[in-house]
Write a structure and sequence with these properties.
6 strands; two-stranded antiparallel sheet; 14 helices; 344 residues; Dna Ligase, domain 1; mainly alpha
Length: 344
C-alpha cells in the first residue's frame, strides 16, 4: 500500500474513533442526566449547606441516589452557567427526577413537603427516631419537647404524675396518620400539636357519643386501647381481646400483658427474663393488677373503638400460636393446653 494511502486510512480511522468517543460520551452524558429511577415516587430530604461547591452538591446528590453521576451533574450545571444560582437549604428530592428538574428546584429554592406516616402502635420514641431518620430534626428533639413543651391547651391530656418518663402526658394521644412536613420549617412542637389536634378531632370529639355511653374515662380507654394495639393482630381480634382484658380488669384478676413491662424496660423484642418479669413497676402487669399508669403506645382508631365497644365472650385467655392464629380459652387448663399445642 502506498504511503499516502496508509496515512489516509490511519487518519480516517482516527476520525472514526474520535467520533465514536464523542458519540459514546454524548450518549453517556444524556443517560447520566436522566432519572435514577423514572418510576420512583420516593422522597428524600437533602440538605445543601451555605458555601457548598457545585462538586460538593453533586457528590451529595449521587450519595443520596438523586442523580446517576456527580460528574455529569457537575458538568451540566457548569454548561448551563447556573453554578452560582444554586441555593442552600433543605430540599425534598426524588430519584424519579431528572438532573434538569433537580437543578430547577435548587435554583428556585422550592422545598416540597415530605409525607410522614406514623403507624399505629408507635411510641413517642419510635416517632422521634422516624422523624430524625428523615432528617427533619435532630435525634431526641421530639422526646425532649414531649416532656418539656407546654401542651396545656389540650384539655384531654392527663396529669403527668405517675406516667412513664419516656412519653409523659403525650404517649397514647398522638394520632397515627400520614402528615406532611416541610423540612426547611420543621418544628417538633408544631408537629406534636398537629398530632394532638387530630386526636381531638378523630377521637375526643369524633367518638364523643361512644365515650358518653362508656363507663370508662378517656384515659382508661386510651390506655386499654394501647394494650389492644400491641396484643391484637387483626381488626377482628381487637373487640374480643378488649372484652377479655376489660373482664379481667373488672374482676381485678390482673391483665398479664407483657407488652407493658417491655415498654417500661425499653425491650420491644427478645425473651423476657425472670428478672424482667420481677421488675417492680406498675407497668409490670404480672405483678400489679389493673391498667398501667398510662398508654404504652399510640393506638389507632380500630383499637380505641374496640376498647369502647368490647365484644362479650366466655373467654378469659388468649394467645397467638406459631400457626399465626389467635386461640382463646375459657379456663386456665384450656389455656395451658393451647400453650402446649400452639407454642411448643
Amino acid at each position: 500500500m502506498p504511503p499516502f494511502c496508509y496515512a489516509l486510512l490511519v487518519r480516517r480511522l482516527f476520525v472514526l474513533l474520535l467520533l465514536s468517543i464523542i458519540a459514546g460520551g454524548f450518549l453517556w452524558y444524556r443517560h447520566a442526566l436522566g432519572p435514577v429511577d423514572s418510576m420512583s415516587t420516593a422522597e428524600r430530604p437533602v440538605k445543601i449547606s451555605d458555601g457548598m461547591s457545585v462538586g460538593g452538591i453533586a457528590d451529595i446528590l449521587e450519595e443520596k441516589g438523586i442523580v446517576r453521576s456527580s460528574t455529569a451533574f457537575h458538568l451540566f450545571v457548569r454548561l448551563r452557567g447556573v453554578s452560582k444560582n444554586l441555593q442552600a437549604g433543605n430540599f425534598v428530592l426524588s430519584p424519579g427526577m431528572s438532573a434538569a428538574e433537580v437543578v430547577w428546584i435548587l435554583r428556585t429554592g422550592k422545598a416540597r413537603e415530605i409525607a410522614v406516616t406514623i403507624p399505629e402502635g408507635f411510641t413517642i420514641k419510635d416517632i422521634d427516631a422516624l422523624l430524625a431518620g428523615k432528617d427533619l430534626m435532630e435525634p431526641g428533639a421530639m422526646l425532649d419537647c414531649a416532656r418539656r413543651c407546654d401542651f396545656s391547651s389540650f384539655e384531654f391530656l392527663p396529669p403527668p404524675k405517675g406516667l412513664a418518663p419516656r412519653g409523659g402526658r403525650l404517649e397514647g394521644y398522638l394520632f397515627p396518620d400520614t402528615y406532611y412536613a416541610e423540612p426547611a420549617n420543621f418544628v417538633p412542637k408544631f408537629f406534636l400539636e398537629r398530632m394532638l389536634g387530630e386526636f381531638r378531632k378523630k377521637v375526643a370529639e369524633g367518638l364523643k357519643d361512644d365515650f358518653r355511653k362508656s363507663e370508662r374515662s378517656l384515659h382508661e380507654v386510651v390506655t386499654m386501647a394501647s394494650l389492644i394495639e400491641e396484643e391484637a393482630k387483626t381488626d377482628e381480634e381487637r373487640p374480643v381481646i378488649a372484652g377479655i382484658l376489660w373482664k379481667r380488669f373488672d374482676a381485678s384478676t390482673g391483665l398479664g400483658v407483657d407488652a407493658a413491662v417491655r415498654y417500661i424496660l425499653e425491650k420491644p423484642a427478645g425473651t423476657l427474663t425472670a428478672e424482667d418479669l420481677a421488675t417492680h413497676s406498675s407497668y409490670n402487669l404480672r405483678r400489679f393488677r389493673g391498667l398501667p399508669p398510662g398508654p404504652i403506645a399510640n393506638p389507632g382508631v380500630a383499637s380505641i373503638r374496640a376498647a369502647l365497644r368490647p365484644q362479650p365472650s366466655d373467654y378469659w385467655y388468649y394467645l397467638h400460636g406459631k400457626d399465626g392464629k389467635v386461640h382463646y380459652a375459657v379456663t386456665n387448663d384450656e389455656h395451658n393446653a393451647n400453650k402446649a399445642r400452639y407454642l411448643r
